[in-house]
Specification:
Elements: H1 2-24, E1 29-33, E2 47-50, E3 57-64, E4 69-76, E5 82-87, E6 96-103, E7 106-113, E8 128-135, E9 140-147, E10 163-169, E11 187-192, E12 207-217, E13 224-232, E14 240-249, H2 253-256, E15 257-265, H3 274-277, E16 286-287, E17 300-308, E18 314-315, E19 320-324, E20 333-341, E21 350-360, E22 366-367, E23 369-375, E24 382-383, E25 390-396, H4 398-404, E26 410-419, E27 423-432, E28 435-443, E29 454-462, E30 467-474, E31 483-484, E32 494-501, E33 508-513, H5 515-522, E34 544-546, E35 549-550, H6 551-556, H7 565-573, E36 577-584, E37 587-588, E38 595-596, H8 611-616, H9 633-636, H10 654-670
Parallel strand pairs: 19-22, 23-33
Antiparallel strand pairs: 1-7, 2-3, 3-4, 4-9, 5-6, 5-10, 6-7, 8-9, 10-11, 12-21, 13-16, 13-20, 14-18, 14-19, 14-21, 15-17, 15-20, 23-32, 24-31, 25-30, 26-29, 26-32, 27-28, 27-30, 33-36, 34-35, 36-37, 36-38
Length: about 675
């Protein structure tokens, strides 16, 4: 009897060990029959992105912050193998990758990591969980889940910062099932914000669609081309809210369209805008920020809609909307700024695109607004040449927020970070009462080719007197001359835009390095004076600086190689800034102080992420239980009968094992 029970106990131990191995340490090279996976899985994903210009590789995904996991669904137009993963810069080194294919009714799934331009090796253990796979006459589909933080040094930690989704495929399965052969040119990467807690929701019957279209033939000699035109908001007798948009991809748009953004147009004094902008309705538009663009277009500064490469469109939270119409606190006219990119200078390229803009008369609870932050678009935003790390900052001063924000505060629900091609990282810092709070947004892997609004997982309250600072890290190693603020993609900006409610009379809250700081630092090189009528609340790019010379000429002539650029950068960063606090272009809010700088405060210290500690020591939080069973030598007559069994309560199969184990213990004690 005792031997039978001991045999049963041994089987239970063996079974539990296999379950634990399956649950806790999936093989990095898996071969699974399709019948073992869920055959009827149906998911409504919150995100979707077509990764390649031809539409061969599509990824859908849903982040679940409560479960701390993301489910990915891959649709690839191939009957061969494919690869998918994450990289901070699009390169293989440091990338987190899976390769997969379906063959003879089996899924082959491999967890790999990039070490360079070579076949990525298998991980020591797998962290991707297969949920479903299938193959038809044209496509292969794979659904997998992965923890946000796997605590595996060979994996990529998913955050709400910019990441490159990398992909590759081949028309054939691997020859020996050991792994993929070289993909050739069938590869690429696309930007994403994987943990973004929003996108598509069901559009209800009350929602109307305003469709905007554009068709433009690109000039053959310009690698970067901006086009601006004005559209009239649909007329309505009653108040409506703008609540979101989706893109329509037409001819060549995936390959040549870089971004399309929309700005609210207002008058300087709040009067009706029809007399200013109606004459531009029906006009095809003008090249942006050139002498041909009408000065009226500069009155369109209130940020409303943003689409850029990799973006998915957006729908606002259910409790907020942007008012439309002059009479309802919004605007009757919107300026669309479209950026086309033709790096290879291809000829005879015509690009078509459209945008479905959603609005409703079923009003949301709150009117939303947008405030532009960062460094003013003026000359003092200067990045020296051949400099791998240079920081520019711009402040929304406490003097401005004290004047504009009501006592009860405003609530930020979305942030958009903006820079050009030297920008490598952007941070939006938050200060209050001598203390630095958690940043509203950070992106350590910012790239100008991907600029997506970021819905916050938790809304952030801003109070009157709060101070906000935008910081941008730049790398100008490949620039022989200085880079200055301006509209062109080869110029630079350092900005953030916050979406908030309730709507207040504040459009811009920025600052710029004060001219006196530049005179102190560069006076001996020729920056000896600035015009007496210099107005930093307007756009100034290359002012006179004394001796008949202009600012950029003098700065480009500096002996940068012999200067202590780190010391210069610190003096500019922490020196005086001129405040720009405006309702709209040219409309200032009166503030008592005109100078600001970094506030004196205790720095913010991020809380330690306890995820990996819990995974390494789960019992410390009571999530897992460890049972120790010792069968004494005298019970069954042999020292080999001693067993120590650990049961992980988190396993779905541990319950029956525990009951069986207790039953065996009771029987053994009775013998």
């Amino acid at each position: 009897m005792a031997w039978s029970i001991l045999a049963l106990l041994t089987l239970l131990v063996t079974w539990m060990e296999s379950v634990a191995a399956k649950d806790m340490n999936l093989r990095s090279d898996m071969k699974i029959h399709l019948s073992e996976l869920d055959d009827n899985i149906s998911l409504g994903h919150s995100h979707q992105s077509v990764l390649d210009p031809e539409g061969i590789f599509t990824v859908l995904w849903t982040p679940d912050l409560k479960k701390q996991e993301v489910v990915f669904e891959l649709h690839v137009q191939t009957l061969g193998w494919f690869g998918f993963g994450f990289s901070s810069n699009g390169n293989m080194r440091g990338a987190d990758i899976i390769t997969a294919w379906v063959k003879d009714g089996q899924l082959y799934l491999q967890d790999r990591h990039g070490i360079g331009d070579t076949r990525p090796p298998l991980d020591d253990h797998a962290d991707w969980r297969p949920l479903h796979a299938r193959e038809n006459d044209t496509h292969t589909v794979l659904i997998v889940a992965r923890d946000i933080n796997t605590c595996d040094p060979q994996d990529y930690l998913l955050t709400n910062e910019t990441v490159r989704m990398i992909y590759a495929w081949d028309d054939q399965d691997p020859l020996d099932n050991s792994g993929p052969n070289y993909h050739g040119q069938k590869r690429g990467n696309r930007f994403a914000l994987v943990l973004l807690p929003f996108h598509h929701a069901t559009v209800t019957n009350d929602v109307q669609t305003w469709r905007v279209r554009q068709k433009k033939t690109l000039p053959p000699k310009k690698d970067t081309f901006y086009w601006c035109h004005i559209e009239a908001v649909p007329k309505a007798k009653t108040k409506h809210h703008y609540i979101g948009f989706d893109m329509i991809y037409g001819q060549n748009s995936r390959a040549y369209l870089h971004h399309a953004v929309a700005f609210e147009c207002v008058s300087r004094d709040g009067s009706p805008t029809k007399e200013i902008f109606e004459k531009y309705i029906g006009h095809p538009g003008f090249e942006c920020y050139t002498p041909n663009m009408p000065p009226d277009f500069y009155l369109c500064e209130r940020f409303l809609i943003n689409w850029a490469i990799g973006s998915e469109g957006e729908l606002l939270p259910n409790h907020v909307g942007y008012p439309l119409g002059d009479l309802h606190g919004g605007t009757d006219y919107v300026l669309f700024q479209t950026h086309y990119s033709n790096i290879e200078l291809h000829r005879d390229i015509t690009v078509e695109w459209g945008m479905d803009i959603y609005y409703t008369d079923k009003l949301r609870e709150q009117d939303a607004g947008n405030i532009a932050l960062g460094h003013s678009i003026v000359f003092s935003l200067t990045v020296p040449p051949r400099t791998p790390h240079w920081i520019v900052s711009g402040h929304c001063a406490s003097e401005c927020t004290a004047q504009a924000i009501p006592e009860e505060g405003i609530n930020v629900f979305m942030v958009f970070l903006h820079g050009h091609y030297l920008a490598r990282a952007i941070r939006l810092r938050h200060f209050r009462g001598g203390k630095e709070l958690k940043p509203l947004a950070t992106d350590a892997y910012f790239d100008a080719d991907f600029q997506q609004s970021r819905m916050l997982t938790e809304e952030v309250k801003l109070l009157p007197g709060d101070h906000l600072t935008v910081e941008c890290d730049y790398d100008s190693l490949d620039r022989a001359n200085g880079t200055y603020s301006g509209w062109a993609s080869t110029d630079e900006m350092c900005q953030a835009f916050i979406n908030y409610y309730p709507r207040i009379d504040l459009a811009l809250c920025r600052s710029a390095t004060h001219p006196s700081v530049l005179q102190d630092l560069y006076g001996s090189y020729g920056v000896t004076s600035f015009p007496k009528d210099l107005d930093l609340s307007t756009y100034v790019f290359d002012p006179q600086v004394g001796g008949g010379r202009k600012y950029q000429e003098v700065m480009n002539g500096l002996p940068w190689e012999s200067l202590n650029k780190k010391e210069l950068n610190e003096k500019i960063m922490y020196g005086d800034h001129a405040i720009k606090c405006q309702y709209n272009y040219g409309q200032k809010l009166e503030v008592k102080e005109t100078i600001t700088r970094y506030p004196k405060s205790k720095p913010y210290v991020a809380q330690e992420d306890a995820t990996c500690n819990l995974k390494m020591h789960p019992s410390s939080k009571g999530q897992d239980l460890t049972y120790t069973l010792i069968v004494s030598p005298g019970t069954a007559g042999s020292q080999k009968q001693k067993q120590i069994v650990q049961v992980i309560s988190g396993s779905k199969s541990s319950g029956p094992f525990i009951l069986g184990l207790v039953f065996c213990l009771l029987l053994l004690k009775s013998l």
